[in-house]
Each structure stands twice: as C-alpha cells, then as structure tokens.
Amino acid sequence: MTDKPLWTSEEAAAATGGRTGAWDATGVSIDTRTLRPGDLFVALADARDGHDFVAAALARGAAAALVSRVPDGVDPSALLIVPDVLQALRDLGSAARRRTGAKVIGVTGSVGKTSTKEMLRAALGGQGIVHAAEASYNNHWGVPLTLARMPADTDFAVIEIGMNHPGEIAPLARLADLDIALITTVAPAHLAAFAGIAEIAEEKAAIMDGLRPTGTAILPADLEVTPILTARAAGFTCRTFGETGDYRLLDAQVGEHATVMRAAHAGREMLFKIATPGRHFAMNALGVVAVADALGLDPALTMADLGRWRPPAGRGTRERVILDPIDDLSFDLVDDAFNANPASVAASLEVVAVMKPQDGVGRLGKGRRIAVLGDMLELGPREEELHAAIADHPVLARFDIVHCVGPRMRALHAALPRRLRGEWTETAAELAKHARTLVDAGDIVLVKGSKSAKVSLVVDALRKLGQATVSLEQGTD
C-alpha cells in the first residue's frame, strides 16, 4: 500500500457535501477506545451520542471528527460538518468504492459469515491486497464503515453483510456494489422477525440486488430453499457448491486438528485442507474456492493459503488452560461465546465430538466432553421447541454432560437424558461462580451461546482457573 492518506479533507468534503478545515486522515474510527492517531472520528449516535466524545477523540490524536453539530469547546476547523453523520458515513463508503478498482465480494448467510470472510482474507491474500473488517461489522453502520476504511489500492474487498429484520441486506449490498455475492447457508435464525425459513432465504437472496450486471452469485446447492436463491440469481453468472452443484464436496475427513477435503469442479478433482475440524468449515472453504475461481485466481495458491486460515477469537478458538504446569494438568476450552442459532450449535457440537479428551490425569480418571450452552436469541414463537430439539442431535451421544444457561435453555435442560443433564442457571454469572466444579483435568469444554446470553463470563471464569493458557489455534464457527 502507498503512504497516501486514506482521506484528505478535500476528498471527504467532496464525498459528504460537508464543510471543514484542512487535514489528512489515515483511518476511520467510531470508538475513542480503539481510535488511532490520524483517524477521522465519526460521531455516530447509537447507545450514546458520539458528539459527546469528539473532544476526547481529538485529544487522543484524531485528525478530525465527522459531526452534525459543533460540540462545546471544540475548534470547528477540526470538524467535518454534515447534516446527518450516518448518511455521511455511507457517502464516504460509496466514494471509497467508486475510487478503487478492487473486486468486491459480499458474504451473507445464517451461519459462518465471519469465518468465511476470514477464510477469504487468507485465501486471497497471496494474490493481492485484501481489505476486510477486523470484526463482524455487518450492519447498517458496519458495512459503510468497512467501505470507508478501504484504501484506494485494494485488490480484493470482502464485505460481511448481516441482518436481523427484513429489508436490511439489499441497501447494504447496493452500497457495496458487489462483483461477487456469496451465501454460506440459510438456517433458522432471527425467526422472531421472519415467518419461516423461506422468508429468511428471500432476505439472504436480496444480496444479489447489489450485484453488478457482470457479477457472479456463489450459492449453496443442497438446501430446501436453494431454488429461492437461484431464482433471485437469474441474469447473473451463478455457481453452486455443496454435495451437489458446480463445486461438489466428494469427501471430508474431519480429524481433531484438521479437515481434509476432496472436491470436484468441471471434471477436475481438488484435494486441500484447513487446519481446523468441521464439516461446515469444509463447505465454507468450498465456497471460498468457488469465489477465487470466479476471480480468475491461481487455484493452487488459493488452496495453499486457505490451509493457513485460523478461526477468529471467540468463534470457536481452542485453547489449553494449564492448571498445574509441574504435574502437566490441563483442560481444553473451546470459546464459541459470540453467537448461536440451531445450525451453529449443531456444528459446534459436531466439531468438539471429534476432539479427544485425556484420560487418566484428572480426579475422575476419564476425560470428558462438556458443553455449556447459552440461550439462542431471536428465534420467535418456536424458540422453546428449537432449544429442546438440541437434545435429539445424535452427536450428543459423544458428550458426558451439558450445562444450560438462560431461560430459553431451560427447555433443553428438561429434554436432555438424565445422564447428560448438568446444571441449569438463569444467568451466565451464576454458572460462572461454580466454574471450579464444572471441569477437571483432561476435559474438553465447549462454551456456546448468543452474545447477549453472556456465556463469555463462563469462558473468563474457566480461564481464571489456570496458571496459564496456550492457544491451540482451532475453531468451530
């Protein structure tokens, strides 16, 4: 990348129609806690009004602030003043898209958006400059922020696009002006806002409203709702992936530390791997290979770089918590506390089911597979049924105990066979108090739940049991 500023005051003013003094910005920030010197601070009004933090942002080295009014005691020459801050952020994002020759890939889906975004970052990174958000910035402010941060010399941009209500995806996809649209899968999620899986599919398919006329849609082949997706792709180049389709997964060997895949496309067989277990990861990886093919990239380089991908923190990262380094006592913790719906919970359970506990080291003698499952949110009127249905998943036969957190997870607790039924608590904080009794040396513990269920408190409590932790660079979501 060049040393050219990300935004000059003249460029930003032209993009937003605002008025300002003279400055150069090297980044864009919406949070004073993570702001870097040289950033343009965007004073969004969300849970708190960003205008209240403009003075602090400038004191911490912000180049300027994007505002709709002048805060008290702030020099107006350090402000880019616009009528509406969020709209101005969208305008910056749109201008950033127009000035780059990058190929822009949009990623949506009920499960695996963030992991697939990171797979694309890894797989494309050896063949050009890749721009993607560091976190799950996939909503009404996250997508324009990601675009506004995109350098002009970017070769590939990966834009994650999410939703929890109808009508959210299409405007974000149009803003991103996509060359490729990838849908990972469609599964029950956000059912509080949708009548059923078909409506979810329609909303996911709306990503194609943002495809350029020459664009390509990469779609899952084996879903009941696949016809809804392919119908929306009419008029575009469309490629499908799955156990059937244009890119076919012939075999996936899931081991404790890797997944080896054999796939076929256009009469050509491919053998590649990812350094983490999970059949769902294999499907996402196949979609990534399809994207790289659509971009005309070298498949050998793509698959080699894909093999170095690691899941992002909190998305199933596996670590070893050292209880006693002298006696070599430890347990493994799989932190998947960021998000949850029925499909992602099933995928996480399947991954941990192939991991091997260590026998003969703990008080109990036998290492156990333990699941701590928190509420899955936004599932609508069927939420109790969907929570209880987890008890019927055959992979639970490989687990030893399941602890449940939250009012919705009480339905699962009641449905579990007696041999699996562990603790149930109303809140994660209550279960976290008993962390010491939940685990023994040799165990593998999965913690999974929607972010608002706060099962991350259990993760933190389990980590604190150890004298040290060691990342094992594995993942499940």
Automatic annotation (TrEMBL):
Coiled coil feature spans: none
Domain Mur ligase central residue range list: 107-292
Residue ranges occupied by any Mur ligase N-terminal catalytic domain in the UniProt entry: 26-69
Domain Mur ligase C-terminal span(s) in chain numbering: 332-450
Compartments, as annotated in UniProt: Cytoplasm
GO CC, any one term: cytoplasm
EC number: 6.3.2.10
Main location: cytoplasm
Catalytic activity: D-alanyl-D-alanine + UDP-N-acetyl-alpha-D-muramoyl-L-alanyl-gamma-D-glutamyl-meso-2,6-diaminopimelate + ATP = UDP-N-acetyl-alpha-D-muramoyl-L-alanyl-gamma-D-glutamyl-meso-2,6-diaminopimeloyl-D-alanyl-D-alanine + ADP + phosphate + H(+)
InterPro entries per UniProt: Mur-like_cat_sf, Mur_ligase_C, Mur_ligase_C_dom_sf, Mur_ligase_cen, Mur_ligase_N, MurCDEF_CellWall_CoF430Synth, MurE/MurF_N, UDP-N-AcMur_synth
Pathway noted in the entry: Cell wall biogenesis; peptidoglycan biosynthesis
Lineage: superkingdom: Bacteria
Any one Gene Ontology molecular-function term assigned to this protein's record: ATP binding
Keyword tags: ATP-binding, Cell cycle, Cell division, Cell shape, Cell wall biogenesis/degradation, Cytoplasm, Ligase, Nucleotide-binding, Peptidoglycan synthesis
Annotated family: Belongs to the MurCDEF family. MurF subfamily.
PANTHER family per the UniProt record, alphabetical: UDP-N-ACETYLMURAMOYL-TRIPEPTIDE--D-ALANYL-D-ALANINE LIGASE
Main function: Involved in cell wall formation. Catalyzes the final step in the synthesis of UDP-N-acetylmuramoyl-pentapeptide, the precursor of murein.
Protein name as annotated: UDP-N-acetylmuramoyl-tripeptide--D-alanyl-D-alanine ligase
